[in-house]
Amino acid sequence: MNSYDLNIDEINDLALLTTNQTAQIFELKPQTLRKWAMDGSGPIQPIKIGNRLRWKLKDIKDICNNEGGK
To answer: Residue 58 above 80 pLDDT?
Structure first.
């Protein structure tokens, strides 16, 4: 396998979600996620792309697996 070959799970783990999508998964208000991003108080931190926040699907899955989700 070449170093650039990815399997589907690795590709999915590279996915980035919007704040609204992430809020729906955690059953939170988007404002809560924005607060986490501002003060670092949440269990995950976003990636900032321009002036937009994006949340790693891998981090979200890890939280759901470790805590059993909400």
So the answer is: yes
Q: Compare 68 and 39 and report the one with higher pLDDT.
A: 39
The closest of 49, 52, 31, 50 to 41, measured between CA atoms, is 31
**Are 36 and 44 contacting, i.e. CB atoms less than 8 angstroms apart?**
yes
Structure tokens at 3: 């170093």
Residue 10 has pLDDT above 50, yes or no: yes
**Relative orientation angle of helices 30-39 and 19-26, to the nearest 10 degrees:** 110
CATH architecture of 8-67: Alpha-Beta Complex (3.90)
